Amino acid sequence: MPYHGAPIQAAYGQGPILTMLKIVTLLVLLAFAWWRFRRYLWHRRLRREGVEIPEQKGPRAVTLLAGVMLAVYGGYMLWHLFGTVSSGS
Questions:
Q1: 35 Cβ contact partners less than 8 Å away, ≥ 6 residues apart
Q2: Distance of CA 87 to the CA centre of its chain
Q3: What is the mean pLDDT of the chain?
Q4: What does each C-alpha distance from 8 to 14, 31, 56, 76, 88 come to in angstroms?
Q5: What's the pTM value of the predicted model, to 2 decimals?
Q6: In the chain, how many domains are there?
Q7: Residues whose CB is less than 8 angstroms from the CB of residue 53 and which lie 6 or more positions away in sequence, other chains included
Q8: Residues 6 or more apart in contact with residue 61 via CB below 8 angstroms
Q9: How confident is the model over 29-72, as pLDDT tens digits?
Q10: Would 5 be classed as within a structural domain?
Q11: Is residue 83 one of the residues assigned to a domain?
Q12: Which helix (H) or strand (E) holds 48?
């Protein structure tokens, strides 16, 4: 018997919040890539001019970005889980 159920988004529980989260994630990743590209060009220009580039101290930017993304998606998953459990679905 063929499946005539709910649309794909409803079947997987993807609503407007998850769609917004995906768009925001894409924008953040594009902004991060742009920032890294500009920083690379800036460092290349400084090396060409003979200026010493100071070594970065502390956590790297990609580590911070990964931590924030894990926290946001983990928070969404917990919110979705507890919303599903409390509604009885």
A1: 61
A2: 28
A3: 81
A4: 8, 30, 46, 20, 21
A5: 0.65
A6: 1
A7: 43, 46, 47
A8: 32, 35, 36
A9: 999 999 999 999 999 999 999 999 888 888 888 899 999 999 98
A10: no
A11: yes
A12: helix 16-49
| Contact present, 32 and 65 (Cβ < 8 Å) | yes
Residue 72: count other Cβ atoms within 10 Å of its Cβ: 14
The 3-state DSSP composition of the chain as helix, strand, coil percent (nearest 5) reads 75, 0, 25
pLDDT of 83? 77
Please check whether residue 1 lies inside any domain of the structure: no
CA distance 83 to 89: 9
Predicted confidence band of residue 78 (pLDDT cuts 50, 70, 90): confident
Would residue 4 count as lying in a domain? no
Sign of the Cα torsion 12, 15, 21, 24 reads positive
**Looking at residue 23, what is its pLDDT?**
87
Angle at 64 between CA 81 and CA 59, to 5 degrees: 145
Query: Domain containing 41: what range?
Result: 10-87
